[in-house]
Amino acid sequence: MPMKFEFAFSKSHRPAGGVAVLLQVAGAKEAAGAAVADPEGVLPKAAKVGKFTGKALKTLDIVAPHGSPADRILLLGLGDGSALTNHDWLKAGGAVAAKLRSAEKVTVFLDAPGVDVTGKAAADFALGMEMNAYSFDSYKTKKSDDEPKSQQKPVKVTIVTGMVIAAKKAFAVAHAIGEGVFLARDLVNEPANVLGPVEFAAKAKELEKLGVEVEVLTEREMKKLGMGALLGVAQGSSRPPRLVVMQWKGGRAKEKPIAFVGKGVVFDTGGISIKPASGMEEMKGDMGGAAAVTGLMHVLAARQANVNAIGIIGLVENMPDGSAQRPGDIVTSMSGQTIEVINTDAEGRLVLCDALWYCNDRFKPQAMIDLATLTGAIMVALSTHYAGLFSNDDRLAERLLAAGITTQERLWRMPLGKEYDKMIDSKFADMKNTGGRHGGSVTAAQFLKRFVKDTPWAHLDIAGTAMGSPTDEINQSWGSGFGVRLLDELVRASYEA
Fold it and tell me: Per UniProt, where does Mn(2+) 2 bind (predicted)?
């Protein structure tokens, strides 16, 4: 069962049992809260014996410390206290949460000597705890034998800091961000037999409770719009496609919106160009881009962002039945451009091209960003540590790179160019949907570029980061929710009034 926390912020607090968490920078003689939690001075000797030096994210656990009002003292190292970033505080909170699986109440003494602790730092620490504790076990009928019954109720956490008012205000925003990340993780982790296009659209529709305007376009409406590329992908499935349009109107009335477009292939067999059986179960996560966009729209609404934002997700299932499109078929996109389908497993770009054109044509956004688990080629280039960034606008690219550094949802800019464009020219149509094996992620982005006109645009290939990426202090989940924090930071830093 996922561990839940109930947070309180206080200027002072004396533990009465439970766990006391003390923070210490490298080389410091004393940890935060030592006078309260360790009146007998147990810590210096314990640290010496345990060779604890305050190195970042290293811990020392002392059970039943003599003379302490707490049942346990957990000492956490912060490393160089003068160089802590927002992400460092997230990781610190996550590292602590990982040690609290049996806790019922916790007191965190945050204001370590030698550290400037802001309200945002306190909020990020709490968010890091929440993000580490997330797990997806909805379909397990039996919980692990060693999980205590106490985890059925929230762990009470008191964070002691001098920045109480600022921390409470910042945590309201941080908690909203966490909710958006968890929504994205839940969507990616759900099995495809439960989360089809219709069910996904219903999940997005729930954002109306937060003030998001949500429209759901059916197959009939998409046919009228001429979305032949998107519909071609969906025609092999018995489950009908959906296009969901989410609008958050938090900015000035006439201000152009910033738009986010997500690939939502709820399951991808590859179609007639069927994928190998091994690992195909992971293709339930081929809607990671749509999940991130939905999670982002939740965040923007929940924290009442001062921006006009559009979220559009194309939801389809790619199946190989008798109605499925074939290699060699030619489809007509909403833009009027024709596409020769060389490989039915290059389906995400077919979904996105119609969604991008629709977004640009209807909303005239100041910028568009699409997210997609688009190519295995990007994993060959960047592994699972960076997402690929392609853009027709240097300023937008720089803003995204900066947001990636701040959140550590890192991006690496990849090339676009006429040379790659020629690789997707077709003998029989305006273009083909794949340029072959070489430069696969680049030719996919070059394909999408044909559907954005001159609007500042960026494409994020998150195939290696949205699912199955390495776990760390703030993510222990297969579905990572990658992109939610990144794009929220982009909006906050570059687009909010």
Answer: 263, 268, 286, 347
